[in-house]
Design a protein that fits this description.
70% helix, elongated, membrane, transmembrane helix
């Protein structure tokens, strides 16, 4: 017997919705996919060159964001 994914977020009338189901899970899913997509932006910056300061700062910011996305979206963070 399988459980519908919607059953996790549905609440009984008068009860408080589960904040974990409503906020944390979607944020972790978004972080997971961001961790997959962000390296493609790194590659484009690397191919264009890191000679200018704004490009280098953008690259460092993207790497930092990617590290955060990997941490938040990792399976270990779900437990």
């Amino acid at each position: 017997m399988s459980i519908s994914p919607l059953s996790e977020t549905t609440a009984l009338p008068g009860s408080r919705p589960d904040i974990r189901a409503l906020v944390v899970r979607p944020v972790r899913r978004l972080a997971f996919w961001a961790a997959i997509v962000l390296p493609f932006l790194h590659l484009s910056l690397l191919l264009s060159g890191l000679e200018s300061r704004p490009t280098t700062l953008a690259f460092v910011a993207l790497v930092t964001l990617n590290v955060v996305a990997v941490y938040v979206g990792s399976p270990q963070a779900l437990e």
